[in-house]
């Protein structure tokens, strides 16, 4: 019978089956919680019922609390009150798990008396990814089942575990046959009844906690080992404290402590930022302005031109998902070197246990090397990753135009050149698209999909779908200098370079950005990438500090010197040589150096970036402000707990941003003349999220 729109109740002999069907992921919405509570109470009151199975239809068991309900008035039963109904049921409740039992979904399974899962199922507590902690007893119950150390890992990483591993650690009691979960769960429930198995409550178990008692070093060591990873994030430390409480406090006090710390996190801007990022990532995949039925083109074979760092990394993305790739290089020795590097990358990954050794050959078998572009004639998608020079790229596309089959997608990996100019070298500009990968291309998640004024809709849809296929976060952007990411980076570059001429040091600039939450500072990143990227050795003319450092052979980490000096372990120290170059250049430019405060560094860099983001949005180069956030979080390391430059600006309030820009413009010139979009939004009392 239907309990409500999303929950049904039926009886199979002495077993009640409570089925939830609330697409897309059976999130524990108000209706789901009300329906499950009603069904459990019906089963308890039904004398013919001896036990009950709680199961979901669709793609997964409950994937957590319904994040869309956060911040809205609480509707009973709350998740915790639903848990009390289940945990105190007078008849066994068996949670039948498939898909991903995550967050509140797993926490609900933890108050069931038994858990059965299909082998393909996964269980996890990923709340930390939302700037939260498991707020329905996960920090108190999980350690009681899997032990403190495993609980610390699982909850602070948010990583799911597969059903087999879950069974080994006692998180799951029984494995069902794949595709036979309902029947096996009913059979398991029947067996529990026949055997008169007890109503086990996780909250009453303490054997696993006892193993950790009197070992404070477990927590001290864990904090130390993860200090770098957790830096700046609030949720991980709150999680650790809750697990410590599980050890030190009686269950109900531990639950109260967990609730207190959960509420703190939920009210914090870090969680708002990370929930924003969760939805923004998914929004980015949705294309604005194209017909929903735009067809996707089949990509059975990919061609890559260039076997260097970028070309090799790009090729790996496709081989990793079983798509054959032909890699073309001009010279055999360069091709061989490129293929060797790819093989080396795979072997290293296999040695680290992150891929099966036999997959090295499987993936290398998908890569065909060639020194003839003619071998790309049968490819559905061809990506060029040759030298970042417009003439070189135009020449390549001219040849491709003659070789590629009709309908093939011709993609450029350029990071800032005008793709319309590249497309104009072909007779088929509608087939040209930008696929801007970030180095290392086989690792970095971000892929800027750059549409030109002519790119066909099918190619846009195909490219965005392909991004997901190869495990990237695709963001559709418009054509223009630097697209979205590099254009904002250029704004940051300009301010950082100007600041060090005016009196700041590179290390002061880097510290401000590091303390803001970036993994590394601006000049450290330049040294890492290499100062000579994009440097023209023939035409160099000491036009700026960076050129002068390059002319001195100071190309960054790879030459043990750039803005910093590096020892054999790549540990950096501020370089007096670089500082002297800066001071001399400033003097030559007639710039009187002065003391520059950290606050000025902070404001000039961050508000210049926000202003450039607003211009990008106003020009339609980005479809959404949140797309800009995703680009800078996934491609450039903007701290996730600050939500991205546009979210961060909204958090400051656009009136504050506008005021800052006007003050900065008065002091430092037109680079800070505010985007008209900001002025419009302020006048309308809106934020970037409304743009
Ligand atoms: N609530 C609401 N909507 C959700 C959702 C959730 N928990 N999870 C996913 N969706 C939507 C998502 O926005 C998208 O919507 C669609 O489902 C498909 O998602 C008390 C407080 C389950 C692994 O963090 O990790 O429980 O765009 O594109 O790639 O302690 O979704 O189609 O309109 O990601 O197959 C904890 C988050 C919540 C899990 C499926 N749970 N979700 O991945 O599909 S907090 C999570 C995921 C909590 C308790 C705490 C993934 C997935 P639309 P998708 P997918």
Report on this model:
- The chain is of the alpha/beta class and 691 residues long.
- The strands form 4 sheets. The protein has an 8-stranded mixed beta sheet with strand order 12-11-10-13-14-15-16-17, with helices on both faces. It has a 6-stranded mixed beta sheet with strand order 1-2-3-4-6-9, with helices on both faces. A 3-stranded mixed beta sheet has the order 5-7-8.
- The longest helix is centred in the C-terminal third of the chain and has 21 residues, at 598-618.
- The model has no long low-confidence stretch (mean pLDDT 97).
- It binds (2S,3S)-3-hydroxy-2-methylbutanoyl-COA.
- (2S,3S)-3-hydroxy-2-methylbutanoyl-COA (T1G) binds at residues 24-25, 27, 63-68, 79, 100, 102-104, 107, 126-127, 130, 132, 134-136, 138, 282.
- What is the mean predicted local confidence, pLDDT? 97
Spans of at least 5 consecutive residues whose pLDDT stays below 50 are none
For the biggest β-sheet, the strand order reads 12-11-10-13-14-15-16-17
| Total helical elements | 29
Q: Please describe the biggest sheet, giving its number of strands, its sense, and whether it closes into a barrel.
A: 8 strands, mixed
Strand content: 5-15%
Number of strands: 19
Small ligands present: (2S,3S)-3-hydroxy-2-methylbutanoyl-COA
What is the 3D shape? globular
Oligomer state of the chains in this structure? single chain
How far apart, in Å, are the first and last alpha carbons?
Answer: 46 Å
Kindly state the percentage of residues in helix: 40-55%
Family: In the N-terminal section; belongs to the enoyl-CoA hydratase/isomerase family.
Pathway: Lipid metabolism; fatty acid beta-oxidation
Protein name: 3-hydroxyacyl-CoA dehydrogenase
Subunit structure: Monomer.
